[in-house]
Amino acid sequence: MLSVTCAGFGGQGVLTAGLLLANVSMVYGKKITWVPSYGSEMRGGTASCHLRIGDSEILNPFFSSIDTLIAMNEESVDSFQEKVVTGGVIIANSTLVKNKTFRDDIRVAEVAATAISAELDNPRGANIVMLGAAIGATGLFPVEDFADGIDAYFGKKGRNNPLNRECFMRGAQAALDL
């Protein structure tokens, strides 16, 4: 069972990244729970979602230790780093998380997600870059399969944006290059 937390501030697409991870996981036969948490401020306030992903029924959606943290900003690293298990992974948006000291007993993938999405003319795609980095760093799913799942998710909503796939692939490649 994998415990994943996506965290950032409102407006960064943290909950959408979690929904994408949950949706694609379900499509590939995984059992999942997705629990959102956001402040009343919404845009600019803190937001996070917590997922459990496994092959068998999940009896409790809550967890106290994190296997993978997707941190869109510095405050997210500060809030959740201590909950990451030894050997766990932090995916940090290095555009906004600068000069941070990370624990020695975890793996860290620093990916310039905000800069990459801006470079690809998809400024709202930083969350997709981070999701790509998380899949690349953890190997939870084959990268191409997950990208197909993202395309299908947005396609069902009538919002096909080829730049989302490009953001995802760039994020996955950035994590693989580390």
From TrEMBL:
It comes from the Bacteria. This is 2-oxoglutarate ferredoxin oxidoreductase subunit gamma. The keyword Oxidoreductase applies. Keywords: Oxidoreductase. It comes from Desulforhopalus singaporensis. InterPro entries: 2-oxoglutarate_synth_KorC, Pyrv/ketoisovalerate_OxRed_cat, Pyrv_flavodox_OxRed_cen. Residues 10-173 form the Pyruvate/ketoisovalerate oxidoreductase catalytic domain. PANTHER family: 2-OXOGLUTARATE SYNTHASE SUBUNIT KORC. One of its GO terms (molecular function) is oxidoreductase activity, acting on the aldehyde or oxo group of donors. The keyword rRNA processing does not apply.
